[in-house]
Each structure stands twice: as structure tokens, then as C-alpha cells.
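Checklist before submission:
- one chain only
- standard amino acids only
- sequence pasted in full

Submission:
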Amino acid sequence: MEHYTNRELSWLEFNERVLMEACNPDNPVFEQMKFLSIVSSNLDEFFMIRVGSLRDLVLSGAKGKDPSGMKPQEQLRALTARIRTQVKRQYKIMNEYLLPALARCGVRMARPESLTREQALYLEDYFTREVYPVLTPMAVDAGHHFPLLLSKSLNLAVLLSGKNGKKNDFATVQVPNVLPRVVFLPTQSGEKTFLLLEQVITMNIHRLFPGRQVLVCHPYRITRNADLTYDEDEAADLLQEIKKSLKKRKWGAVVRLECNPDMDKRLLDILRKALDVDDEKLFKVDGPLNLDFFMKQLSGLEGFDQERFPSYTATIDPDMESSDIFAAIRQKDRFFYHPYDSFEPIVRFVRDAARDDQVMAIKQTLYRVSGHSPIVAALAEAAERGKQVTVLLEVKARFDEENNIHWGHELEKAGCHVVYGLPGLKTHSKITLVIRREDGHIRRYTHLGTGNYNDVTARLYTDMGILTAREEIGEDAGNFFNMVTGYSETPGMHFLVAAPKELRPELMRLIRRETDHAKAGRKAGIEAKMNSLLDPDIIAALYEAGQAGVKIDLTVRGICSLQAGIPGFSENITVRSIVGRFLEHARIFHFYNDGESETYLSSADWMPRNLDRRIELMFPVLDPQVRERVMGVLHLQQLDTAKAWMLHGTEWTPLRDECSGERLNSQERLVPYGKTVEETSPEMENHD
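Returned file contents:
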């Protein structure tokens, strides 16, 4: 397809935008540290899923081209080169910018050779007490096969002098993940000085091999293919099939070996042979392997609040704190823009429904939930109180499969009817239906949203949702649940539009309607916000609309295969990406329609998987006040000059470089400052 950017290369451009936040002076240094860590975790997942699936295609002999015209092997070569450049820049930022900045704040990474005597004695004692008992050195020789190493585990490769003049021996030691990776040292100055656990073990590695001479010891890390494959058509029990596949994820083929540039060649040759690693899979990095310790241990250090984003407490509409939440919803549609608006009213909606004697049934879809989900607890309580509770729990939500299986079993024990997804489709819609008897009649209350029912990510991701008592919406919601839990065909809907059957044609109709308006000389325009824009048919329709004169303004956080601003082709299309404190996750679609504008929210991005292989929902914003607030957010982000990047063809440039005056940060404009909240940063490449 002409003017279509490869998906994987576009994702790497997104990860580059995240990386640039790690050296953005507008961000406090502890926030820069988080962004640097996020880049690493993003790349881990990218290798496990995207690179892993491409390698599978190459091994299968697939020669087909993606919509950008690239074959799998061509994509792998291009990705490998791009990733090497990105990782080199990541470690340059860490070594030359971030570590010195942290040192100025009083957090210093020590060098083993520069320890004081007091620190050396402390580490010797710490190793003896805490580390040594946990370690298990594993010899590799004729009688001991190379161990099956866990994906993403950190290990030490050790070369030992041979016995009686024989050849040298090899051993490997896993750095235990049950111990903190950051080991703080005693200091006289009060600074936070630390070494990493692998450094502590390396300093004492000789103690694991008494009677032998340790020649060299170097850390290494592997990443395995984690792209699950299972035959849904042949599986008699989808849940059991996924459980079986999850066990295989830990032991997939190695897709990446990470080590330091100075690793001894003898060790590297042994590892490459044992792990089947060619040059394309080998990545040498100038620093610690895996930078997640910045997020997991250093970012939460006490006493450094001035080096973080200011804290706040999300707002709650007083009406939603009233004794009768259902009366508040009957009064008018209630709109939420998380994390600026608290997620607590959504939790309370389900919890109050569980405890309300007039509530007869609760139906809900769940895609990703938190580890201690109050939503799940409320659903279980409702079932235990005798209410009819139906939960469509998506068991194929990547990397949350085990968590969702666990919660599914807990809900079943409580008496809920649990449907573990549908064969061939992922249920990605976000909808809750509460059925209540009032004055002898049935009334339905519905929550529709763009984000997961997850109280943790609701503090980190920007998402929108609506609570409504509109009867037509409630009737649509009932029909929707009957469709996904039973055998009914897609029913006619008043307002809800469902994928995979209805959403694609409806979006194409809405885009083409704007095209027809423009061709007829009427006013036309499209404004949309989403995580990813990838679908070739949608992109082709947008190109056609832009060429017909439709002004198109898109906000796309992550992958964008559309190429904007190309003279004579897409000059009527602008695309921006906002990367900041919160992960932009809401999906908003607005069509001008010659003045009779329509605004929608959705769980779906404009990607083939969302439109063709998932159960998704798009729903209209019917209340004028809510529509005004939704569009206000969209327009505010179009004015962002602090965190916005603009797409010019295939190149992204930060608007902050072009702004000479005071910069507008759209996220900061919305934060309700002055209160306190605990928060951590999200992984920017969300598990949507």
C-alpha cells in the first residue's frame, strides 16, 4: 500500500518518543528514571511477541508482504538495526545524563573498585547472610546439560580453570529474583549509594567454587519467544488449552541474548552455541542488563518528592458520593475522565449494586483487572447475596492469562456465571449492566468505557466512561450480553455499535459521509484520538477523505501507519502523539457531518485486530454537556506544545522544539493539584 508505514518500525518510533522523555529537562529526574525503565520493559515485550512472531514466520518459510511491502526477513533486519541504535542511545542517556543527574540528587551507583573498607565488609557480610544461601551454581559439561533458563532472567556466566591442566570449565549462576536487585551501602554522607546484586555476586563468585580458580565472570540475559499459539477450533476446552500453552511460554526459543561489550569471547562462544544465538540475536549493552530496577526500587525512594511530579487526588462529583448512586445516574448521564476523575464511583457502582436488594442481576466484561480487584470482590459478593451475576472474562488477554484464570475460578466459587471468552475472538469491550427492579418495573443502568475495569491503571491511563440510565442504551447492553454469552446473532442496536460485524462498516460509512459532504461543498471534518492507527482500509478511506477536502486531525499515541502532511497526498491530515505523565488510552471519534456533529467513545483502536478479531463497542456521546467536555479534551490536546509530537510523512518531531514561549502541557492543565495520591508510572506500551 502506498504511503503506509510498517507497524513494527512505527512502534519503535513510539518507543523512541518515550525514551526522549528520559532526558526531557521538563521532567523531574525520578520521572526521567521511570521513562528509561519503561523503554526497557517495552523492548522486552516487543522481543517476546513481535520479534518472536516474525521469527516464527521466517522459520515457516513465509514470503508474504505486510501492507508496507516488507517481507518478514526484511522486517527483522530493519528492526534489528533500529533497535541497536535505540538501545545505544538509551544507555548513552543513562550513562551521560541520568546517572550524573541522580548523583547530584544524592543517589549514586557505586563502582566495586571504589568501595570503602566499611562498605566492602558490609557487602561481605550481606553476601554471606542473604545471598550465598540462595545461589545455585550449575556446571555445564558432559554430564550436565546447559540449564533451561527462564526468559528475562539475569544470569552470570563463569569460566573456571581446568583441573590437572585440562580445558577450562563453564558454569552459570542465576541472579536470584527473590532478592532486591539494588543493594544499598552504608555511607557517611547520607547519600543513597548502591550496587546491583549481580555486582555483589561477582565480587564473591570465588566462594561458590572453592578449590577452583575463577578466570572470568560476566552477566548475561536471554529473552524468549512468548507469542502463544493454540488451536481454538480444535480445543474442546479453551481454558485448558490456554493453561497448557502458558507453560510453553517460559521455554520458547531464544530471540535475544544481552551481554556487555567486554564479555570474554570464550564465554560468549559457549553461550551462543548453547542458546542457538546468531549475530542478529546478540545485543551488547554498555551498562546493567535490564533497567527495571530504576522503576521497581529506585523510583520509590523516600525523601525525594521534589524530584517527582507533584501529587494530587482525583476529583469525585459530590452527586456520586450521595447515598443513592442510582438516583444520581437517573438524574443525568455521568461522565468520567480518569485519572483526573476518580475511579472510585465505578467501583462503588458495582459494589452498591451487589448490596442493593432491588438489584436483580449484574453483567460485566473483564479484560484486565488488578491483583486485588475491588470490582471482582464486588461481583463475588453480589453472587453470594443471591444475585444473578454473569462475567465475560477474557482469558486470552496477553500476559494476564494466569491472573484472569485465577479470578475466573474465584468468581465461579462465589456463584458467578463465568464465560472465558469466545473462540476466535477476544472480548475487549468495557461494559457493565445492572438490572434493578424499581416500582414494579425493570430499569437498566449501564457503564460504558474506553479502558479496563482496573483500579490501578485507572490512576495511570487516561480513559473515559459514562454511567447512564437511558433505556435504549440499557436495552442495547442487554442484547449485547445475550449475543456474547449465548448463540444469538448480532441484534439491531439503538446506539451501540459492536465489532467484529458492525464497527468496521460503520466507521467506513462515517468517514465516507464526510468525504461526500466535502465533495458536495458542505462542511466536513474528522477529529479522532486513539492508541494506534494501523488498518489499511481505514487509512485508505482517510487519505481519500483528505484529498476530497476533509480536514482531519488525529491524535495517535502509539503505532501510526498513516503518513501525514505529504504534499499533494495527505496535506489535509495532521497527526500528533502525546507522551507524558499519563498513558493516553481513550478513544474518541468525532465527525462534523455538515454541522450535525456526532461524537463517539470506543474500546477499539483502528487496527485490524480490533475491528475484525475482537468484540469491541463504540457508543455515542448523547448528553450535550458530556459531549462538550469530551471535545474540550480533544481540542486541548490539539493545543499541546509541551508533550506533543507531530508526524511529518514518516518523521516525528517534538513541538516543544518549535515553541519559543510558554509551553502548554495538556495533561498538567487537567490535573487537580493540591491533594495527595500514591502512584507509579505505567508501561507506555499498554496491554490494552
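Reviewer check: The chain has 18 helices and 27 strands.
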